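Objective 1b of the project was to move from sequence-level analysis to a structural picture of ligand recognition. The entry below was assembled by the postdoctoral researcher (A.K.) and checked by the PI before modelling. It contains the amino acid sequence of the target and the SMILES of the bound compound, zinc ion.
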Amino acid sequence: MGGIGSGRRSQIGKDTTSDYLSLDVRRLQRDGLLTPVRSFSWNWSRNSRIEASIQIRIEADRAILNYRYRRGGNWRPEEYPVLLDRTGCNFGGQRAWFRCPARDCGRRAAVIYLGGSGIFACRQCYQLVYACQRESKDYRALRRADRIRERLGWGAGIANAEGGKPKGMHWRTLDRLMVQYEESVGEFLAGTARRFGLPE
Ligand SMILES: [Zn+2]
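Corresponding predicted holo structure:
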């Protein structure tokens, strides 16, 4: 069973997305891990050292998360389902989504975060803001992603849904922007995971 909780503290002031462990359903989908029934460990590493890990079991329409979370010196086991949703894609195939497991939420989210409650939930539930005060490499990647979203008329926020092709845009342009977008999002998320456990 995986363990999480190396005494990480969030920054003073508003929490930011980069203070949290994040789990990206698109990454799981890209890696071909969303086919039922399948169990695997998901790790967050830094300098080739595993900082945190959870067990994930994929069933037909849900992912069961299983891990231990440390709070007040005690390791508490957590096991709960996160529903999976699938929507058609403009580019063919299907897109997977998490349904936020927080009570009374159920929002569709590409990324869920592990915040202070010890449970993964969507960005809105944790009222996360992006780390705009930090001109880090990761944040520049995030802003690059947002600028592409704006160009595509999708609105800012990589946790939000991807839209379709804007009227009048060439497919080739769209393809190029999509590649840049995926790269930027990937860079941001990799940086987020790398920073886990590191005081800044
Ligand atoms: Zn939520």
